[in-house]
Design a protein that fits this description.
The complex is a heterodimer of chains A (380) and B (333). Chain A is 44% helix and 8% strand. Chain A contains 15 helices and seven strands. Chain A starts with 41 loop residues before the first helix and ends with a helix. Chain B has 333 residues and is of the alpha/beta class. Helix content of chain B is 33%, strand content 20%. The longest helix of chain B has 15 residues. Classes of the chains: A alpha/beta (380), B alpha/beta (333).
């Protein structure tokens, strides 16, 4: 008997229609027992080489982005940086699997997905720089603000996807979460709402093994996080999160299934956070170096080089082009982030309400007077 | 906004229902969602008939999960809808607090004005209906101390209609607190009258001796107290705030300055309650016009009591008159 066979007997008196009806969706709910891989498998030969090359290019640029942001943090140019180093395959595949009309709902670790979607790093990183909460226009970029409270962005993705579907638009929402986030109540509520509403939304959980210091074994007793999908009545998918081609395949399938009216999907990507949680964290207190070393051998860029070179998909020219693009991005980030941001103290009051309350007008005038007095002192 | 023009007699519950219908008729982006809001019409019947008239898509029965309801409404608002959320009871709204505080209240600010959230969150609140625990909370202080939210609470049938329409039309999120003990009070009113603006207090009774500053469920009690005070020789004014945020400081201070004595009355607990803020503000701004300290008559600083004891907790006419008696009549003007 599988999980799907376990249903209340239809003969129980009083059960309403629907309570015992079998699911008609052909997509199986249970995830496969081993994560999907494409690189180095038969599936790789059936994957568009142009897509593989694009994924490689984005991975290399993404790695350099992570390195540069980490360096900028050490130099005090960012207030904090939760790096996605080692997780770049998840980030760039997420960006690439979405169409322009789709919406991305990133968490605080997903600035690379935002940048890979086309948002300027300077705008994507204002939150972590400390200069503004959200530096990009969510509507223009179809990218929600980075969510710091865990899993709280997941119900937003559901609501937006639901509204888009009501409007008849072919828009899909992708919510990005971590393994720790799956323990939050909002994760449960979002998945349940999504399934009940049949909303065109995809939940991508990057299981990088740790919620800051807490390992997955202390986070969940589920056979896999993808198994959680079954309880909501949506398919769960398990994928090698460092295999960019597999990530793109699983995400694209889920996104297009949602777009076609097939409903939500939960994807668990198995990956690893090579860096500490943030620059303020000390990962040596809770994990062994040998574990990090092992995962470095399963690095997303290494994987591509290992499998795309022999297949003739990756050549020196692409390697050089990708490296040049990565260096150009890094140089631009250095130049832009070493300049002081332009800050307007009076902006504190402008976007609390559509119109300032009388109290805010008064407080705004107070700050303006303080600034004028400071300027006068400085002028002397 | 177009509505029926005839004078009508209805309860506050019916007026709220009409406001929802009129907004939904006027604006197809207005969507209602919540627990039991469909066929049942909500446990208080405020959404009665909405699904029948507008369909399940526009009046949506949701799973039983308040954070999910509000979080979903946020996403809907991000896509251009104007969601009206029903929280079933005051104390059942707490699971949605993180969505409310971290996202609803802050989204406009977090996005430099690019992503305003025109969401109305209706919350039946307050005691006086014999509800068992978790059904009678006055939760307004939590909302009022969260920047980014408007907090509106009507006390009359016509204000319930007009303020709910104004709240739904607002481009800012509004926590719309419905005094559930007033749901079934009937009065005659005119739906064609202009919708009152959010943030404007209303002088419900003029007087020269002292002003009772109140809102929501306590307004009728204050009006009763003012009536009873005549026997003591006091001529009490009654000011209905109608909106806690934005706070109509101008009207409140004008009234207090002209009268010189004030008592703030509400059901919510006194410590850190709205009355503390109002008394502090009035004292800071009207000190030289005051003949007595600003007093407060509030619920005690206790969890809401069992229904058979709630009348001891809730501000009543006698407690209000006792406070008026303490306004230093012999020392003042």
């Amino acid at each position: 008997m599988t999980v799907l066979d376990h249903r209340h007997p239809a003969t129980v008196p009083g059960w309403l229609p629907g309570a015992t009806a079998p699911r008609t969706d052909p997509a199986p709910l249970l995830p496969d027992s081993s994560p999907l891989r494409v690189l180095g498998t038969e599936a790789q030969t059936k994957t568009d080489p142009a897509l593989l090359r694009e994924l490689y290019r984005r991975l290399v640029v993404g790695r350099r982005y992570n390195q540069q942001a980490t360096t900028l943090t050490k130099q005090g140019r960012l207030a904090v940086y939760p790096a996605s180093t080692g997780q770049e395959a998840c980030e760039v595949a997420a960006a690439l699997a979405l169409r322009p009309q789709d919406w991305l709902f990133p968490s605080y670790r997903d600035t690379l997905a935002v940048v890979s979607r086309g948002v300027d790093p300077l705008e994507a990183l204002t939150l972590l720089r400390g200069s503004a909460h959200t530096g990009y226009d969510p509507k223009a970029t179809r990218t929600a603000p980075l969510s710091t409270p865990l899993a709280t962005q997941a119900p937003h993705a559901v609501g937006l996807a639901h509204a888009a579907r009501l409007a008849g638009d072919q828009t899909v929402a992708l919510a990005m979460l971590g393994d720790g986030g799956t323990s939050e109540g909002d994760f449960h509520e979002a998945l349940n709402f999504a399934a009940v509403l049949n909303a065109p939304v995809v939940f991508l959980v990057q299981n990088n093994g740790y919620a800051i210091s807490v390992p997955l074994t202390q986070q969940s007793a589920a056979p896999s996080l993808a198994h959680k999908a079954v309880g909501y009545g949506m398919p769960g998918r398990l994928v090698d999160g460092n295999d960019a081609a597999a990530m793109h395949a699983v995400l694209s399938e889920a996104v297009e299934r949602a777009r076609a009216g097939g409903g939500p999907t939960l994807i668990e990507a198995l990956t690893y956070r090579i860096e500490a949680h943030t620059n303020a964290d000390d990962a040596t207190r809770y994990r062994e170096e040998a574990e990090v070393t092992a995962w470095r051998e399963h690095d997303p860029i290494l994987l591509m080089e290992r499998h795309l070179r022999p297949a003739g998909v990756l050549d020196d020219e692409l390697v050089r082009e990708a490296a040049e693009e990565a260096e150009a991005l890094a140089a631009r980030m250095r130049a832009e982030f070493h300049a002081e941001p332009e800050l307007d103290p009076m902006s504190l009051f402008t976007h609390v309400y559509a119109e300032m309350t009388p109290q805010l007008r008064e407080q705004s005038a107070q700050l303006a007077a303080e600034l004028a007095a400071e300027a006068e002192v400085e002028a002397r | 906004m177009t509505t029926a023009t005839a004078l009508r007699t209805s309860t506050m519950a019916q007026a709220l229902n009409l406001a929802l219908k009129d907004e939904m008729r006027a604006d197809p982006t207005v969507h209602v969602l919540g627990e039991d809001v469909g066929a049942l019409g909500g446990v208080f019947r405020i959404t009665d008939g909405l699904t029948a008239e507008f369909g399940e898509d526009r009046c949506l029965n949701t799973p039983l999960a308040e954070a999910g309801i509000l979080g979903t409404a946020i996403g809907m608002a991000m896509y251009g809808l104007r969601p009206v959320v029903e929280m079933q009871f005051d104390a059942f709204a707490y699971p949605a607090m993180e969505q409310l505080v971290s996202h609803v209240a802050k989204m406009r600010n977090r996005t430099a004005g690019r992503l305003p959230l025109p969401i109305t969150i209706r919350v039946p609140y307050g005691g006086g209906i014999g509800g068992v625990e978790h059904h009678s909370d006055s939760s307004e202080a939590y909302y009022a101390s969260t920047p980014g939210l408007h907090v509106v609470t009507p006390a009359t049938v016509e204000d319930a209609y007009g303020l709910l329409r104004a709240s739904i039309a607002s481009d800012d999120p509004v926590v719309f607190l419905e005094p559930k003990r007033l749901y079934w009070g009937k009065s005659e009113w005119d739906p064609s009258l202009a919708v009152p603006p959010i943030g404007k207090a209303a002088l419900k009774r003029d007087g020269r001796s002292a002003v009772l500053i109140t809102y929501g469920p306590s307004l009728p009690i204050c009006l009763d107290a003012a009536e009873a005070a005549k026997a003591e020789g006091w001529d009490l004014a009654v000011l209905d705030l109608r909106t806690l945020v934005p706070f109509d400081e101008q009207t409140v201070c004008e009234v207090v300055r002209s009268i010189g004595r004030a008592v703030v009355v509400h059901e919510a607990t006194g410590f850190g309650g709205p009355g503390a803020e109002i008394a502090a503000r009035v004292t800071e701004r009207c000190f030289h016009h005051l003949a007595a300290p600003v007093l407060r008559v509030t619920g005690f600083d206790i969890p809401f009591p069992p229904p058979m004891l709630e009348h001891h907790h809730l501000p009543g006419v006698d407690r209000i008159l006792d406070a008026v008696a303490r306004l230093q009549w012999e020392d003042g003007r």
